[in-house]
Amino acid sequence: MHDNQSQRLQLRKLIRQRRQQLSPAQQQQAANDLVSQALALPALNNSQHIALYLANDSELDTFPLIQTLWQQGKQLYLPVLHPFAAGYLLFVRYDQDTLLYPNRFGIPEPLAECHRLLPVDQLDIIFTPLVAFDLKGNRLGMGGGFYDRTLSQLPTKSRSKVIGLAYNCQQVDAVPCEAWDIPLNKVITPGEYFDFRSMITP
């Protein structure tokens, strides 16, 4: 196996184990702290169309944040596996009464109805899941490449802000990168807000 691939697999295993070792009380506290961190984001006030995801595989629980954003009148969208373009995601409007159905990975998602779709470049904020991140903004996902492929469609000067969500324990020294990986400008954890563009020295 390619060295980089092997490193990525090992890192995924390690960080997923770290997440799984968090107690229910720690997970709940982290989910609540995430809400405070997200609400402190200046970009959130001016954003109306926001993509999130439902936690899976011991990911940081986003539901308290989802409920808070609904209360603020934001329009929320969930990722849906593209029915025709394999490996890509669509974003579908998610309301409190939206019915969800398990996809082929067992992750609940809404039906991809045309009138509820929003093109990715019209989203103000796209909150993405991740397995690991480093201080250069490199993101390691689950390995399917769905977000990397989908986000690669964004125009270079897109107004969409892509922000990773993670536990603090998912930060690592260095993510082994591949050419197709899309780096993040920002990551929010329950304890910290990282803006990687401000960390890059000229």
UniProtKB/TrEMBL annotation:
The keyword Transcription does not apply. Its EC number is 6.3.3.2. It is an enzyme of class 6 (ligase). This is 5-formyltetrahydrofolate cyclo-ligase. Belongs to the 5-formyltetrahydrofolate cyclo-ligase family. Keywords: ATP-binding, Magnesium, Metal-binding, Nucleotide-binding. It comes from the Bacteria. Its cofactor is Mg(2+). It catalyses: (6S)-5-formyl-5,6,7,8-tetrahydrofolate + ATP = (6R)-5,10-methenyltetrahydrofolate + ADP + phosphate. It comes from Rheinheimera aquimaris. It holds the Pfam family 5-FTHF_cyc-lig. SUPFAM superfamilies: NagB/RpiA/CoA transferase-like. InterPro entries: FTHF_cligase (IPR002698), FTHF_cligase-like_sf (IPR024185), NagB/RpiA_transferase-like (IPR037171).
